[in-house]
Amino acid sequence: MAKEENLEQEIQLSPEVSQDKNKQETGTLEMIEERAKEEESRSLSSLNLRTILGGDVLTAKTVRHQIWLFVLIVIFAIIYVAFRYQCQQDMIAIDKLENELKDAKFKALSSSSTLTERCRESHVLDVLRQNKDSVLHIADQPPYIIQIPE
């Protein structure tokens, strides 16, 4: 019976106790909010290396409101670095291809020079005489021009 009476007294007192607890909780919440506001104002006014490296700056209200701006800036920075890296890779590839093109032009020039030298009339006649393959020789008379009346 004593237990039941104690329970009844607790039940009767519980609304009063719960109201007191609610008042204490709201008072506690208000105190926490005041401290947070004081810390924010204090952290903004006393900006030094320790607060920056400690990360206290990141809890400031202005920084929290601008977090999407910081995210956007970081994304743009990453894109800038990526495009610059890609551009440098493309420039390296272009330089390499230009060097290959120069080499190909020099090879074509030397091949053309060699072919021109070998195709000269005197050189061809010398080769034919050495091989004794032909009876070709240099003409003694100038070419004769035939004119046809119209």
Quick structural summary:
The chain is built from 5 helices and no strands. With 150 residues, the chain is mainly α. The model has no long low-confidence stretch (mean pLDDT 79).
Note the topology.
Blueprint: H1 2-45, H2 49-54, H3 61-65, H4 67-118, H5 121-131
Note down, in words, how this protein is organized.
It contains 5 helices and no strands. The longest helix is centred in the middle third of the chain and has 52 residues, at 67-118. It is mainly alpha-helical and 150 residues long. Helix content is 79%, strand content 0%. The model has no long low-confidence stretch (mean pLDDT 79). The chain has helices at residues 2-45, 49-54, 61-65, 67-118, 121-131.
Give the biggest sheet. none
- Please state the CA-atom Rg, rounded to the nearest Å: 49 Å
The SSE string, one letter per element, is HHHHH
Tell me the total number of β-strands. 0
Short key terms for the protein model shown above:
150 residues; 0% strand; 5 helices; rod-shaped; mainly alpha
